[in-house]
Design a protein that fits this description.
nucleus; transcription; transcription regulation; DNA-binding transcription factor activity, RNA polymerase II-specific; metal-binding; 3 domains; mainly alpha; CD2-Gal4; 719 residues; two-stranded antiparallel ribbon; 2% strand
Amino acid sequence: MSEPTASAPQPEGKKRQRVSIACLACRGRRMRCDGQQPICGSCVRRGTQCEFQHAENKRRSDRPPSKKYVESLQARIRLLEAQVVSLGSQPPMTLPETQSIEPEGAELDESTGDEQDPLAELTGLVGRLNVIEDGQVHYFGSQSSYNLVREPIREADPHEPSLRLQRQGIAAAAQLGKLVTISDDMQNHLLDIYWRWQNPWNYVIHKGTFLRSFKGEDGGKYCSPLLLSAIFAISARYSDRPELRSDPNDPNTAGDAFCEHAKILLLYESEAPTITTVQAACLLALRIMSDGKEALGWLYSGNATRMAHNLGLNLDCSKFVTSGLLSEDEADTRKVTWWGCYVVDKLFSLGLGRPSSTPKSSITCPKPSIDNEEEYTPWKPTPGGAFDDSTLGVHSHISSTAHHVSETYTIACEAMDMIYAINSKLSPREIEDIVTKADVELQSHYRALPSYLRLPSSPKVPMLPHICLFHIQYHAHLILLHRPLMRKRKSRRSVSKSASSPEDTSSLADDEYANEHMATCRHSAAEIARLLRVYKQQYTLRRIPIAAVHLCFSAVIIHLIDARPSNPKRQLAIHHLQTCIDALRDLRTAWCAWSDRALRAIQLLAREWYHCDDVSQLQHVNNPNRGGAREAGYVSLGDLAMSAGGVAAGGQLMGPPVASPGAAVESTMGNTGREQAVAEGDPLAFLFDASMPDQYTDTLVREWLAESGYDDMLNMGNQ
């Protein structure tokens, strides 16, 4: 094999090319660097680690911001200026001096001195962590009177209650015939898969403390039979070994035995949960979603967050470290577990369109510190991948990836919790203000990413899989953030001003949904399709985490809307749509039922909107005029919206009911309400209702009722 061009000698007489950024290794040795990425020529020859830190290069720190970032800032400025004008005639809203409140109790107080003022404790606004009779650290808020009680430190083993329950759970599993044992070889195989593919994305287990417990160094404090079973249950979905299947001929049964075993153990351990119980519940919630058991997955996700709050994982425990009650490793394990649980909760909240259990106001736990072992251990793909181990032996950056994943969820979900609230009374201007503010914050964070977390300049440059998925997640956030405002009308004048050429002006003017929010959704959906192609080319989609199903589905909705015949760029939208659908089909191997559900929902939407039984038929849907749509065999999206809410005469399933507009829906539409929009033939009037982010679920329920023979219930709902 020929040596990389980076190490090839320069031709005589040719001046060495200067580069603006040298890698860290060359910079440390004060050597010239050719700037080749991902590995420069000098590092190839020396066999050393090669990394580029763009953020540290001051010559590029003043580079101009991107066009998208400038547009987001301009939109934010316009909204703030409008608010200043509208508030100019109103008196300033200030609290009288008598209403000022001192921030008493703003700090957690775990001191054990006797000179505390009882009244100060009673009026404090923040609770405290406390060690109670089971030996575990628990949290009681200031509303609870138990917050005032300080339990004395006990000499008993704090792990005895959990160990006793573990033994009871194992005995029960054995009695029910659900006890599972595996060989050391299979155990190592599943753990290796977990550390390579699952934990770098859903960073919920601190590997260092887990392995020490796994080796028996601390009595198994951070490695329990329940946690091992949960790890094996989800790792088996990534494996092709038939021994891991309940039915050797059915890949969909991989890990079922471990999952059933873990359910029994979790039932017992929930009585006295520990950190490993929280971690196991998170993994089981994700694993169960692969079976399509969305209700049970949602339940386990909620159990995980409830147990995490019970243990006070959401709180800063630095005072316990200072007092010696917790070690640094224990504190880091708590942080990793909390933020991993936080991300799982947000995944379920966004994927199912339901309230989150982890509001920002309840969190004081800082992000985990950088774990050198996790951060700088070289990540290598499973043998047999598209790239050999030497090419991808770069630092894994698991800790920093997890930090930025949770940070983007915090920014995006705080805004979405407000705009998607069912009882939201926000005006159109307030919704847009929230969206643009969050958009600017997200883009600022995205622009400040360190070089090793950025997208490479070429799709041929290898990219770590969890970093690729992080970028997919970022664009899915933008879609869900801007989606409620996609149908905001834009005047032809503003459309013309936003176009960069006469050709762009005509295409945008022909598009009735040409506004900055639709443009953001289109761009992000196209980026998701592109990144899925890159991921598939470099790794295949066989071992991508289950979160990819929801992220991919978010992009599909945008591409499906853009596949309408009136869109001048529909062929490109159909191309991206096919990419995402192919990806969902690939995901069926690991995440069978959940991916199948998304594919079924897409099929139903295509049938409702375009009367196509298969998405591939969209190519053959002609561009109808408004008067002859029905004669041409095409039902307009407006017609579908007007007839939504039941089953048509021909048995065609229709969309959700649209007869009764809610306040949040009217505010999102911004003018006369949903009925007028439906009468004008606007599909987004019912699809992108901010108060109902998962509209397809209604159709799935109706289909299930019809297939199950409950036609009378359907008829009752239509009366």
